Amino acid sequence: MSEAPDSDTKSGGGVAAVERAIAVLNAFRAGDSSLSLNELARRTGMYKSTILRLLSTLVREHCIVRLDDGSYQLGSMLLHWGGLYQAALRLDDHVPPILRKLVQETEEGASFFTREGDHRVCLFRVDSPRSIRDHIRTGDLVPLDKGAAGRVLTVFDPGLASGSKPPAQPYIITIGEREPDIAAIAAPVFGPQKRLRGALALSGPAARFSDDLIPAMSARLLAAAADLTRRLGGDTTLFDSWDAAGRSAA
Description:
The chain is an alpha+beta fold. The protein has helices spanning 16-26, 37-44, 48-60, 76-88, 91-106, 148-155, 214-231, 237-245; strands at residues 64-66, 72-74, 109-116, 119-126, 141-143, 172-175, 182-190, 196-205. Keywords: DNA-binding, Transcription, Transcription regulation.
């Protein structure tokens, strides 16, 4: 095992000790109740002596808890920070920039929908720069059973899709379902505890959603959905697993 020598700063401008402390915290994964010193060393690639020095500070600041069996567990301070983050989190700060980027990349309209009873409401919308486009607007209410975004809000919501099998891919495509000659691709966006926060969608004339263009469009949409999920404190496992399997191959 090799490790860079200790130093206060790194050439990239970061602080080495802080980056190593974050690496220790990042070593914990979903499903880990606690980790031994050996496992922390294996996952971080750092010497045990270095980890022990970092753990001493992290334990003192309640970021890590040392259990009676000698293993380590994430501490209460992380929950406190998470609460502060959630309290300060506003969709307005995160959704519009992602929609604008999607429109720039695809030249199709991008929207973010949430569920309201048997309907979905468009909370945010950025129009396509093209003259022929889908004309949905912010505030529009659409039946939940019409269109890709509505289907995403149904299929990926545990409360609505109890017992049903999720799609093979983390997105849904519809053509002519909400309006004739209009197509859409939509993907779910999650928050903490795998809570469905909404549906991210691209929409436009069906002629521009051809078989040869859909793979690139869906890849950009999924990257955006994963980015927004990450910003909202959600788990991106669904997108990461799909990406690892090879979206284009599927």
